[in-house]
Amino acid sequence: xxxxxxxxxxxxxxxxxxxxxxxxxxxxxxxxxxxxxxxxxxxxxxxxxxxxxxxxxxxxxxxxxxxxxxxxxxxxxxxxxxxxxxxxxxxxxxxxxxxxxxxxxxxxxxxxxxxxxxxxxxxxxxxxxxxxxxxxxxxxxxxxxxxxxxxxxxxxxxxxxxxxxxxxxxxxxxxxxxxxxxxxxxxxxxxxxxxxxxxxxxxxxxxxxxxxxxxxxxxxxxxxxxxxxxxxxxxxxxxxxxxxxx
Length: 246
Fold this sequence. Notes:
Layout: H1 22-25, H2 29-37, H3 60-69, H4 76-86, H5 93-105, E1 109-114, H6 124-137, E2 142-148, H7 158-172, E3 176-182, H8 183-186, H9 193-205, H10 214-221, E4 230-232
Parallel strand pairs: 1-2, 2-3
Antiparallel strand pairs: 3-4
């Protein structure tokens, strides 16, 4: 058979013609000819069409994965949603064993990750569900390591998400915010070990600047964007140890 080539042109989207639309304003005779002479259609790039929540934005990773697979591929956020809804998440042996270990030995349970509601790399509702589970299991020492976004969420939105997290902690009656840092450090994927090392040292050694509260830590760091936040908030009691669970 004839070879089939899948070409993905990042940034080339379909939107109404306007002075701000670089695609329609450009001179594109080759693309115009392809569209005029060959079958074509429009693909949805968000929501359930690409395996994320209805109304949620897509991303480059999500779009590429679905186009390459030629089918809808459920993303992690949607799969975890379904596990929480069915209750199966809280039956996973690794999770139940970890909570039992903390309850019986007094070890700490650490929760860490992006705190945001856009669902690109994380969803704060999943964090909230885990807080509720640990409260129900009677785990007393629960520490949350807050990773600010600021890329898939508006810059300087961390305080909004912090307030929502603190409200949930108060409702559950368990958990305290142990550290605050940005995805620039904690979730670097460029191979920059120096950034990852900063996050690791903050979590395990208490390295970094300190503040009296998570809110103060964020306020002090706002000379930079959310993604680059790097602050600790509590004492050495919240450090991640080998005997802890996370």
